Amino acid sequence: MYQVYVNQAGYYPGEKKMAVICQPAEHFTVEDMQGNICYHGKWEVFGLDELSQDTVYQGDFSDFQVPGRYVIRCDQGVSASFEIGTHVYDKLMYDVMRAFYFLRCGCALEEKHAGVYTHDACHTGMAMEWENHDVKKRVLGGWHDAGDYGRYVTPGAVAVAQLLYAFMFFPDVFVNLELNIPETGNHLPDILNECKWELDWLLQMQREDGAVYHKLTTARHAPFVMPEEDKEQLYLLPITTIAAADFAAVCALASRVYRAYDEAYANTLLFAAQKTYRWLEENPYFISAQNPRGCGTGGYGERDDLSNRYWAAAEMFATTGEQTFFDQVVRLRKLPFPRVALGWGEVAGMGQMALLTSKFPVGKGMLEMIRSEIIQEAERLQKVADGCGYRAAMTEYDYVWGSNMPLMHHGMTMIVADWLENGERFRACMLDQLHVLMGVNAMGISYVTGNGEYAYNNPHLRPAYADGIDACMPGMVSGGPNRHPGDAVAREYIKPGTPPMKSYIDHYGSYSMNEITIYWNSPVVFVLAAIMHQA
Questions:
Q1: Which position among 398, 460, 487, 507 bears the catalytic label?
Q2: What angle (nearest 5°) sits at the alpha carbon of residue 533, between those of residues 341 and 20?
Q3: Annotated catalytic residue, options 148, 190, 198, 315
Q4: Beta-bridge partner residues of 31
Q5: Nearest partner of 157 among 58, 249, 60, 56, judged by Cα
Q6: Contact 348, 337 (CB under 8 A)
Q7: Between β-strands 234-239 and 127-129, what pairing exists: parallel, antiparallel or unpaired?
């Protein structure tokens, strides 16, 4: 393990660059790979960082801008190597986007696209309704949601939406980004090809009456086997209003994005969104997600469906301009739910993005309220980061299962705030959140497989364990530190009283700290797109 913590992916020449060390130190040097000293710097005392319990020293070398590969060295230790250059995040973006391909269900992953990470087609059998085994349906495609082989509507809709908004805000980053997937070279940018794989599955989760099944899983999580070896019965789990709302929202959003490329597909998506929205209106009471007796797969339950309905109404208005949807937005804004949360459990923040980007007028008053909510949250997050030696905009309560999700959501909020202000007030702090993910953290670890000299490598991900390959497929984002160890492995290795930022173990058995999910990758894509767009 390295003693000096840096962003192991690297830094753009003109951007903020900061390293951290956790022992008394005065001076450091930036050295090239031949040992030549290229820059002299001085450590500045930050002091005690509460959530790591480290005494932190920060080294700013932002004014060193010469492209190349370097390490930071001082008497107390050395860093991992890192690059300074204009393409330092190209591989990282490629890998975090390619991760979705590795999680595809219902098809074989072939060597020409997957390299050594091949497997046969999986989960192609008939599914039956949990409540009525006489109802059977073949539902193919989609992404394996996380470390298990389940497919879930609400997190899938959130992941797709964040990718689509990344494309909408920063299309220049994606139009020429080829991912070596089977569809590469067709009429769509590859980010839209990959999203379509999940959207096509989502469309199959809609019932004839417009209701939407909550998830498609087996009764229990599979053991750590390859996906094609999981041959247990597939079940369509009961309908929920949160699944319906998120389905309507993402289909409406997708219809706007795909219309420029495939009008027929856009119409299919819009028709599906309208059908499900009508069902939502006919079913105004919350239908929660609860595992029925005998089912032990992911629940993805929520306490209410207010933010989900808000997101759906906002996307439907942004897509159609119909007053009835805007009226629902206005009505729902009178109810209590978090205004800027980005999912998966609270999703109103994506409703805000729908309204902000709508080509139909939403009114100056509404825009000002949304603008104020987002900018106030960005200001709050910046203050939190100012109080952290590692510059993470994370409170103690953010260090939960999947803490790297709020870390990246905070970056997204800062990006949208800067977009609203047409400035860069929050850019440096947003960059800090990526630096934390990539190594400027109390573990000194990169939380993205295959990216960085000291990247984690043992996610709670069944094919990563079962394939027998030492190096994990690249681009998988770890859940990260969790102050509440929630599995036997974590409880064995993490001692009581461990600081939140250090409550982490790189072990395949720890789902509460080291699982992966599609909706942890998607906000990383959004943050990277903003950085690459503005660089």
A1: 460
A2: 70
A3: 148
A4: 37, 71
A5: 249
A6: yes
A7: parallel
Give Cβ neighbours of residue 284 (< 8 Å, ≥ 6 apart): none
Assess contact for 432 and 411: CB atoms under 8 A. no
Q: Reduced to 3 states, what is the DSSP secondary structure of residue 244?
A: helix
pLDDT of amino acid 150: 98
Residue 60 bears catalytic tag? no
Tens of pLDDT, residue by residue over 339-385, are 999 989 999 999 999 999 999 999 999 999 999 999 999 999 999 99
Residue 133 to residue 284: CA distance in whole angstroms: 27
Instruction: Name the residue among 229, 246, 236 with its Cα closest to residue 207.
Output: 236
Quickly list DSSP for 452-489: STTB----B-HHHHHT--SSPPTTPBB----SS--SHH
The one-character DSSP state at 212 is B
Q: Locate tokens 């069944």: which residue? A: 462
CB 241 within 8 A of CB 308: yes
Could you give the CA distance from residue 349 to residue 360 in angstroms, rounded to a whole number?
19
Confidence (pTM): 0.98
pLDDT digits (tens, 9 = 90+) for 118-171: 999 999 999 999 999 999 999 999 999 999 999 999 999 999 999 999 999 999
Is 396 among the catalytic positions? Answer: no
Percent of the chain with pLDDT over 70: 100
Does residue 534 register a pLDDT over 80?
A: no
Alpha-carbon distance of 182 to 187, in angstroms, equals 13
